[in-house]
Design a protein that fits this description.
The chain is α/β, with parallel strands linked by helices. The protein is 49% helix and 13% strand. The protein has a domain of 83 residues. It has six helices and five strands, in the order βααβααβααββ. It has a five-stranded parallel sheet with strand order 3-2-1-4-5, with helices on both faces. The radius of gyration is 14 Å and the shape is globular.
Length: 130
Amino acid sequence: MKEIINSRILIDTDVIIDHFRGNEGFGLLISDQSQNICYISVITIAEIYSLIYSHEYELVEKLANQLHVLNIDVQIAKLAGAYRMTYYKSHALNIPDGLIAATAKINDLILISKNIRHFPMDDIIKIKPY
């Protein structure tokens, strides 16, 4: 696991789903020792609910209460649209990933994702956690 300490981070859906499937790395990101301030996008909440099993709903609720949830606003939506226009042909960028990337950029957050290739933008910091 890459050491990510004392940072403001936006956690992508894949990292959280990995956590529900038993990967321990996520716990290090949100632990008190890491001193990270951890955020997720409302888009991530929608994606999580489309991917989890019914027995995991309570875990998702508990986790959502531990993280800061960021909403989408007009500024984020416009930037996501611009990202999609720029990267759709070269990287097949979809709207959810564009919104998550724009959320990281507008809020000056480090994006933590296992799928860095989904985020080809050069103007955001991206880290693959493990």
